[in-house]
């Protein structure tokens, strides 16, 4: 089998568009207050409600993709997402905007569940680590691109103009995938019923293969988003800008560089464990340093977590052979990933209020060790199966 890199890059572009559903409001959050001055704390829902959909329905989305076919799901979700972005350009009242963001959450979830399945199918075994690691960068890169280009664009032309561009990009992604992805053969499967969904959820999380990527990934997401949000404010003021800019970029670089090489040679699960070990070392270093050395510890934490980021997605095809089980694993990653990103920042914020900068070590070190222990336990279960 030859790797279809054109399809993989088109899918990655679709992932960037999906991450843009968060970035298009998160990056310009301060500007949104002028659009809905009466919103108060409800304005936060414009950002967070998209992720809440993933918490509730992530694994269910994996079951739906396994039955309906990843190609039709991702193309349909991109078209729907484009329509919702276009609708938001019309100046919706806050209640309707939040409702549209709920609908957008379903489109986002469909893309991030179907994408890994299709990428794994388009990559030859020798290239799966690189392809899945590339996919794993979509979230951080979309935020970086939106911050660099989208924020000044929205400040100059308004939020609606940014959302219109996003709608157009999603349509482009849908058109590309319609051309480059081959049509699927959908095998008959029993319809989804409440009892079936509950049994399937239990089966997914009981499986040491299907659940393994997600059960490790939640430790990563709890640390990473919280650290990106709060660490720059805890270092010396002269280092804050550099820290905020380089942390996400170092994570992407380590994931696509050494992370891919490690995954090819020793496997995704061991690479994730190495990443957590590097993160634990960085957290310990943070606790005993200050100034520039503490910034270095933050950079090392980001680099180590970059290993975990790519390896977690590479573990989906490494541990699961069929499209159905890969869809279920991707759905579990979406679900637990959203749980981690939702819980991590408020937990670290509370710790920081109580402990000051030392909260970073107290928060990240046990989570990194927990990620290592989780993968050791699941590896032991797979070996005994």
TrEMBL record:
Transmembrane domains' residue ranges: 43-66, 73-99, 105-124, 131-154, 160-181, 214-235, 241-260, 272-289, 295-317, 329-353, 359-378
Matching InterPro entries: MFS, MFS_dom, MFS_trans_sf
Keywords linked to the UniProt accession: Membrane, Transmembrane, Transmembrane helix
Molecular function via GO: transmembrane transporter activity
Record domain Major facilitator superfamily (MFS) profile: where: 7-382
PROSITE patterns in alphabetical order: MFS
Domain of life: Bacteria
Name of this protein: MFS transporter
